[in-house]
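Dear H.,

Thanks for agreeing to be a second pair of eyes. The structure we're designing against is below in token form, covering all 852 positions.
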């Protein structure tokens, strides 16, 4: 909204805003800036109030953040006008006052009520009541101020238990809008879990507990609701939040409270965050935020728990530990002094008591204040090492135990390397959680797999999880697989060394300790091989089987991979990826069963596929034989019997190209497309352009020559969000468009979908590499680029320009990056020579640049 420049108050407002902006740019103390800005606005609003001359019947109050003198650049101006009694012309006088503030450019929200109406509104809505408790008199009679104070102090108006439960419900609804996580990629500083609203909830609860309108952190501490340590943590969190919010409003020039990706690097620069080797400045800034938000969320939950303890019968569990209702607690305030081993022992006992849902608030606080009793030196306190190992090997509740250990600081104290990844984010779109949160999710996914709760899970994945003979091994590996993130270098290698040392110190048998280290070292191998390699190539399976070595390692790696990918970004775990991982797992299992000295015989595999496909087709048929003779041996190695039978029926059922057929994959892993086309149409370029036009994502492609002049191109496609295509009208539209695209005279279409906002923020450099696979007789082109709609179509256009033919493609998206692999040949089916490779690389880079 354009502000008035003719109002005599406009210069004062402009000066106030300029002074605030200068203070933000100079990194002045947030509290001084906020209070100074509130004072400046007070003077402007009081002047406007006097000019309106509303009379002695009304009083003007600042409420909300403005009432607390915390006025950010883009904040709303919350006002409450209280009338002593109804007067017919009061609203007529007040409307010009409110309109004037809007004309000045102040986003003003104002209520106008009598005292009795104010009481009714406050009784009906806890948010209204809370805002009024922060009311600060700006102008008008102090009599109304005293009467408002008396009204709000009434014991019948939101008594503490009712107020607390209303705030609990309010918090739950707000958290649900943000997935109940402090670790979002673009968190809201104000409304997100652990944000400023949660911080203020503590002040509101404290004030109601004390029977006051407002309460400071000191008041809350004196009342016993928070500890001195928690008070310091809350003070630090407020300073972090306020600096970030001031900077956000300054950079966005509006009341933006989300830490948007495009603002995060600029904000880190504004706040003078330095980078470190292996850690971006923005990652350091976000680590500060995540740690502060986690602390606020934890203290918030503790205060709610301590104000409304679970209660229930008290029973002794073992010396030093008792159960009270649904929580476990220490027997007394000095229990840990006499029995320090219970700092870990309480978690192990809690795992064995499924009726207990949590640790008591007092137990959590005693642990947090007694962390010195937890020894982080692995050579000391063998009883602690035994307890920690038993927590990871417990039959159930491993993941929740580790989470509570993390929340209380015990895990970070016992395992200092974990403290280093706490709150650490990675500035990309692939990892949607901080590293510590991701690790805890991996542990939870492993536990869900072992207990049959992981959905969706393939039968072979469930079987592999059940077959894990030493559960502690997989939990050790899950805990350590990303422990070395942010240190520079290969985190897998660094983490493997640390995991081996830790496992040996915890008395794992040597073979199990080596397995833990091997899993950490190779935790990405199965995922990368499955998504970037041609799984129909016997050499790929043989090489991977040699890497794995035995079935035990393969089972552990399969379970860890599935748990890791789903915890990196839940949207990544779909039926297509599950199928790829399952194919590699099953093929490797067969290779290990045969023995590494007996690698897969391609001829035997081809004969097996043909025999099974003939059975699906109903036996021998000369037309089938003639068709199959045009396809070549590689085709029968690359496709399953079901796919071969489907393709055969399609090709025998048409008189010639073009023809396009679609069907859902039997295992639910996307939609299969079979396109029969003339070779001279360069079907790959036309199909990819058409699919980009439809907003569909290609995850795999193969092109098979049929006879001399035709090709059979097959694709697996998903919706843009990674889900299978379920809309039958969309499928029919896709088929019709692709048939038209393959027509001899059809023009090539370009994708029209805009690139998502978050993806546009990353300037991912394009890198194209070419090499020759002599044994397979094709060229391998690897593409690394920023993911965007139409990227694959751009590559296909380059292939068409240079008369390059595709054999297979593996399409892999890692957040904002595309990492695609293409196996290609010239028109005669041979690898490209060095000169053609160079010209192709240039053509691909040129087409991708033109697509931006």
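And this is the sequence the design step returned. I haven't edited it by hand at all.
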């Amino acid at each position: 909204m354009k502000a008035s420049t003719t109002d005599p108050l406009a210069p004062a407002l402009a000066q106030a805003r300029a002074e605030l902006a200068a203070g933000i740019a100079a990194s002045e103390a947030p509290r001084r800036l906020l209070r100074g800005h509130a004072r400046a606005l007070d003077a402007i609003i009081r002047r406007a109030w006097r000019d309106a001359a509303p009379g002695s019947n009304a009083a003007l109050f600042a409420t909300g953040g403005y009432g607390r003198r915390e006025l950010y650049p883009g904040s709303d101006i919350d006002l409450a006008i209280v009338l002593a009694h109804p007067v017919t012309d009061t609203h007529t006088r007040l409307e010009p006052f409110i309109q004037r503030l809007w004309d000045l450019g102040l986003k003003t929200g104002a209520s106008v009520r009598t005292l009795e109406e104010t009481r009714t509104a406050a009784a009906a809505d806890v948010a209204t009541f809370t805002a009024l408790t922060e009311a600060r008199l700006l102008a008008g009679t102090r009599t109304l101020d005293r009467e408002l104070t008396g009204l709000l102090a009434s014991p019948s108006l939101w008594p503490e238990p009712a107020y607390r439960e209303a705030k609990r419900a309010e918090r739950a609804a707000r958290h649900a809008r943000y997935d109940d996580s402090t670790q979002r990629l673009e968190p809201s500083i104000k409304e997100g879990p652990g944000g400023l609203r949660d911080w203020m909830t503590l002040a509101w609860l404290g004030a109601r507990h004390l029977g006051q309108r407002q309460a400071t952190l000191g008041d809350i501490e004196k009342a016993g609701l928070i500890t001195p340590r928690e008070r310091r943590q809350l003070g630090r969190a407020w300073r972090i939040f306020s600096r970030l919010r001031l900077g956000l409003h300054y950079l966005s020039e509006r009341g933006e409270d989300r830490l948007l990706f495009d603002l995060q690097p600029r904000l880190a620069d504004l706040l003078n965050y330095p980078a470190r080797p292996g850690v971006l400045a923005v990652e350091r800034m976000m680590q500060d935020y995540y740690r502060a938000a986690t602390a606020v969320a934890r203290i918030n939950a503790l205060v709610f728990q301590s104000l409304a303890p679970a209660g229930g019968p008290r029973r002794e569990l073992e010396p030093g530990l008792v159960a009270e209702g649904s929580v476990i607690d220490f027997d007394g305030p000095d229990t840990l002094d006499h029995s320090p081993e219970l700092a870990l022992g309480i978690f192990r006992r809690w795992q064995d008591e499924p009726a207990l849902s949590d640790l008591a608030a007092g137990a959590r606080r005693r642990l947090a204040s007694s962390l010195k009793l937890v020894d982080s030196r692995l050579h000391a306190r063998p009883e602690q090492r035994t307890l920690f190992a038993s927590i990871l090997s417990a039959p159930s509740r491993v993941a929740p135990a580790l989470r509570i250990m993390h929340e209380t600081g015990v895990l970070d104290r016992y395992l200092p390397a974990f403290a280093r990844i706490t709150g650490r984010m990675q500035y990309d779109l692939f990892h949607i959680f901080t590293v510590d949160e991701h690790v805890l999710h991996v542990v939870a996914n492993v536990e869900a797999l072992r207990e049959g709760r992981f959905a969706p899970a393939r039968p072979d994945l469930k079987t592999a999880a059940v077959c894990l003979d030493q559960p502690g091994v997989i939990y050790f590996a899950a805990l350590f697989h990303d422990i070395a993130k942010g240190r520079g270098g290969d985190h897998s290698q660094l983490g493997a060394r640390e995991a081996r040392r830790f496992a040996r110190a915890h008395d794992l048998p040597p073979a199990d300790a080596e397995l833990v280290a091997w899993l950490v070292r190779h935790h990405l191998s199965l995922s990368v091989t499955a998504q970037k390699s041609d799984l129909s190539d016997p050499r790929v399976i043989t090489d991977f089987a040699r890497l794995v070595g035995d079935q035990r390692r393969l089972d552990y790696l399969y379970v860890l991979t599935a748990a890791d990918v789903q915890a990196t970004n839940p949207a990544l775990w779909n039926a297509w990826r599950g199928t790829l991982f399952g194919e590699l797992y099953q093929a490797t299992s067969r290779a290990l069963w045969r023995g590494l000295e007996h690698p897969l015989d391609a001829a035997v595999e081809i004969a097996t596929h043909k025999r099974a496909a003939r059975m699906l087709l109903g036996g021998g048929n000369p037309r089938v034989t003639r068709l199959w003779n045009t396809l070549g041996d590689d085709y029968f190695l690359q496709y399953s019997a079901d796919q071969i039978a489907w393709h055969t029926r399609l090709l025998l059922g048409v008189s010639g190209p073009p023809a396009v057929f679609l069907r859902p994959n039997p295992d639910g892993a996307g939609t299969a497309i079979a396109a029969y086309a003339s070779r001279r149409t360069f079907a790959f370029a036309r199909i990819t352009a058409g699919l980009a036009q439809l907003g569909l994502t290609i995850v795999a492609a193969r092109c098979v020559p049929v006879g001399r002049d035709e090709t059979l191109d097959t694709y697996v496609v998903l919706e843009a969000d990674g889900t299978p295509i379920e809309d039958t009208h969309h499928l029919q539209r896709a088929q019709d468009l692709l048939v038209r695209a393959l027509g001899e005279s059809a023009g090539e279409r370009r994708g029209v979908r805009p690139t998502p906002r978050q993806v546009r923020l990353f300037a991912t450099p394009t890198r194209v590499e070419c090499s020759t696979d002599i044994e397979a007789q094709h060229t391998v082109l690897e593409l690394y680029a920023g993911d965007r709609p139409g990227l694959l179509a751009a590559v296909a256009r380059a292939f068409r320009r240079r008369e390059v033919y595709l054999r297979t493609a593996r399409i892999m998206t890692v957040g904002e990056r595309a990492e695609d692999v293409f196996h290609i040949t010239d028109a005669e089916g041979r690898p490209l020579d060095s000169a053609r490779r160079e010209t192709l690389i240039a053509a691909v880079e040129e087409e991708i640049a033109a697509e931006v």
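Two observations from my side: The chain has four domains: 10-158, 161-307, 415-594, 602-851. The radius of gyration is 33 Å.

Warmly,
E.
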